Amino acid sequence: MDFNLSEEETMLRESVARFVRAEYELPKRQELIASGRDHWKRFADLGWLAVGIPEEAGGYGGSLSATMLISEVFGGGPTLEPYLGAAVLAPHVVLAAVGGEASANLLTPVFEGRMLIALANCEYEARGKLSFIGTTARSKAGSFVLNGQKAAVIGGPAATCFLVAARTSGGIDDPDGITLFRMPRDAPGLTVRDYRAIDSSQMSDITLHNVEAPAGSIVGEVGGALAALEAGTDTAIVAAAFGIAGAMTTALSATTEHLRTRKQFGGPLRDFQVLRHRAADMLVELEQARSAAYRGLAGLHQNDPRARAYAASSAKIVVARCSRFVGGQAIQLHGGMGVSDECRISHLFKYIAVTNALFGSDTYHIERLGSLM
Amino acid sequence: MRRILFEEECLLADAPPQHFANIHSVGPVIYTFGTDAQKRRYLESLLNGDEIWCQGFSEPNAGSDLASLTTRATREGDDYVVNGQKLWTSDAHEADFMFALVRTNPDVPKQRGISFLLIDMKSHGIRVRPITLIDGSHAVSEVYLDKVRVPAVNLVCEEGQGWTIAKFLLANERAFSAEVPSTKRDLQRLVALAKSEPRTGDVLWNDPLFRAKIVSLQAELDALEYTVLRAILSGDHEGSDLASLVKIPGSQMRQRVSELLAEALSTYGVTQYPPVQADSGQQSLPGPPEAQGVSATFAYRRATTVYGGANEVQREIISKANLQL
Q1: Which of A37, A83, A191, A320 has its CA 20 to 30 A from that of B319?
Q2: Does any CB of chain B come closer than 8 Å to the CB of residue A1?
Q3: A94 interface with B at CB cutoff 8 Å
Q4: Is the dihedral of CA A109, A113, A115, A118 positive or negative?
């Protein structure tokens, strides 16, 4: 395992970091939220959406570690665009479902920013368990009819196309029988309810009422989508872990800066040992989280579903605990400013909370990891 | 990297570890700072284990504040005459030599008046008093030095360089202070134990609440192992000095796994261990064979957050050196 960035990766990191610093510092970030504008097209033009995706699938090649470093820097903003959902989760599910070359048709317009794809697999009741899908797809004269509900579709509001996971056979928790359908946003019978999470990221709930999907809209194997959902989701879990580590890094450096400059009782806050030691604990937990993310990445490289699942769940558990601590203590050490909307700490805290809630809580992943031990 | 792999394989095979003081403490000091004569005299025998070393650093009034140590070494002709007291000295009762920090100059700032001396434990004037620890073991002692004559050729480097050498020695250790291989081994034992010990008609592993504790610790250990690897493999490239961060979580995890091993055995996890002088081997405690040693380890592991620089001292170092606070 090599923890040092290549020259190319270092340059990529610097250019992404420069962009994030310039465009997401407050109050610019709030202006973006208020106006509803985003930088998605810029991301695409700069090639960031295609990083870490094999060339035959329409990507720029390079390793997943480049994807992770973008995610980490984005988390440090935090940015608002659905990078995790539309550039990591959905593409990696497609890649795992149909393989590199066959993905190019669907994914090239995604990487070019002409189409935004959102994965609609999660259902509220599943709480992270990917096999738990109640949405049905009944076959009818060469096509399928879909009925059901999907929750928390990342990037749903901007999506032009959904990748819907539905059951073509089996019971509600059956590992077999799950099939992926691509469908346009305006498919008859499909209603989208858009909303924002507390970190202002965009999500949707989807209702499918007798939505017709031709057999040609199936992505991958009929009934065999679970493996692809697991692979793509584990990749997204690790990318999220890097994103959270990025947010924790920003939160800690803002906090140490605050301890150096804020004066109370006649001196800077850093004169107080209790605060210095809290900051030291924050650094320990930050690096613990970053290591968990790296370990997760190593698991993705292993090409063994069990090792990958283990690594992703292990990372999720650690990152959730560490980031709750660092996010919470960053607010605590900032005092009143920490809970103000005008201070970036509150935004980082909310980004951490939302990202931890994706793909199942740490409680679920403790259960999942236990089943692999 | 080789060291950590070797250490891990030894532990996983339940093989004895390398002698810490010999191999990881004084050995590197002698081959880095020692004279040719010192290297010839000591290195081979400490490597093959013919001679055992102990570390004379802590004193009754110099624990976390090690630099305030007062054991005095005064030059008299070709000898130093050493007077003072060392505490928590591991293996002192078995050791052939002690490497010690002694004060050779009381008139300069405290770090600069310290020297690094190699002392023969058979010297006249040395008395070793065993200390029974919380686990009933005798692994550490108090060492009294009363007019002990130490040849001046046993000084390592120069007078006043003791603190620099001690920092070198401790820096060597920092990346390993997490003791991940040991916790890894304990966690394996814990999982095996939970999968075999009974609980209300099932095995303990199937208690989701207890299993969650084990799984959470496993995940934390997985991550910590990567911090150690990052510290070793990427050096200082990341700007933040990672090696100084691993002792706190590492020591906490060693405690945690010992707590869970004890919990896994219910009350058999807290049975009284045999007294120090007992004829061991004959005595056996109630509970499964795996219970042997669990209660003693559980008690002793409270030391992990104290020794090697108490975790509060670590936090002070991190806040100053890593965070510039």
Answers
A1: A320
A2: yes
A3: no
A4: positive
Q: Are B116 and B175 in contact (CB under 8 A)?
A: no
ipTM of the complex: 0.94
pTM check: above 0.90: yes
Within 8 A by CB and 6+ apart from A208, the residues are A135, A146, A147, A148, A149, A150, A164, A166, A189, A190
CB contact under 8 A, B316 and A288: no
**DSSP assignment letter at A161:** E
* CATH 3.40.50.1000, domain A118-219, yes or no: no
Summarised one tens digit per residue, pLDDT across range A130-152 is 999 999 999 999 899 999 999 99
Structure tokens that stand for A98 in this block: 């149909």
Q: Do A291 and B322 touch (CB under 8 A)?
A: no
A3 neighbourhood in chain B, CB within 8 Å? 229-230, 233-234, 237-238
The domain limits of chain A are 7-114, 118-219, 226-371
pLDDT digits (tens, 9 = 90+) for B189-226: 999 999 999 999 999 999 999 999 999 999 999 999 99
Lookup: tokens for A174: 């059956």
- Domains of chain B (ranges, CATH numbers): 2-171 (2.40.110.10), 175-277+284-322 (1.20.140.10)
Segment 313-332 of chain A within 8 Å of chain B by CB: 313-315, 317-318, 321
Check CB contact under 8 Å for B318 and A280: yes
Q: Which two tokens stand for residue A141?
A: 């004269």
